[in-house]
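Render Lipocalin-like domain-containing protein in 3D.
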Amino acid sequence: MKQIIILSFIAGLFLTTSCSKEDLNERDLVNKWHLIEALADPGDGRGVFQKVESDAIIEFFDGNTVRYSNSFCAEGNSVNTGIYSSIENKIYPDCNQDLPLSYKIESNRLIIYYNCIEGCAEKFELVK
């Protein structure tokens, strides 16, 4: 019986370590990310991410600060800095808007959701 428990433990340990694909998670957020896709829904809910050619980089720093080479804010504001909360998964741009931006890491991509009437978001990949 003792051998079965030990073998089960070893098999479980092997399976959990051998199946991981080095998926990115919240700890990987503090990095540089490159814009690769954008979503701008026309209002009917059928919008999909489209590839973009861009040099835009967003960088998350220790100390909960973030800098984006594009602007976080609409209406011609060129604000590209802010703070983020990895607990809330929110970015608070320095442009005095009341609504924070949401983000998540999914399938090794960072997705930032903007506050649009129609859906709009940007997808980033980790800069290596």
